[in-house]
Amino acid sequence: xxxxxxxxxxxxxxxxxxxxxxxxxxxxxxxxxxxxxxxxxxxxxxxxxxxxxxxxxxxxxxxxxxxxxxxxxxxxxxxxxxxxxxxxxxxxxxxxxxxxxxxxxxxxxxxxxxxxxxxxxxxxxxxxxxxxxxxxxxxxxxxxxxxxxxxxxxxxxxxxxxxxxxxxxxxxxxxxxxxxxxxxxxxxx
Length: 189
Prior knowledge:
The chain is mainly alpha-helical and 189 residues long.
């Protein structure tokens, strides 16, 4: 915006966004060097700055909308949303590399990603992968179908995992069907 002098609150928010961006880049470097724990720490710290921005924008979220909450230019709001999505997605990638994998945390991170950026293929894929390992095949299928649609069927990892999920669903359906058949065959005594 030409002539727009940022308020003190907006300047503080921009500083927090810059710090979050720096921590994301630091996390990316750690991840490339296979330093997963350090990457997790960096991404988590970056998310704390993003959550601080959210608190700045919604100081009385619990009590209702605050009259004097700072307003931000749309491009800065988009940057905050993107940063949150990237940090959650990168954190999910790290969590998938830890042993043991805490799939519930991966699900939580990926739900943030897909809520903020519904077109994010990696977010949907990782969400599907986590649900697959939790053995929630219906949710895995839904997430992977979304990823497959977004990737126009061109992502081999998505297609391969979707086939595995479909096989598991067929096994579950057969098991359920067999149990139902057997319960009908049991004669009362």
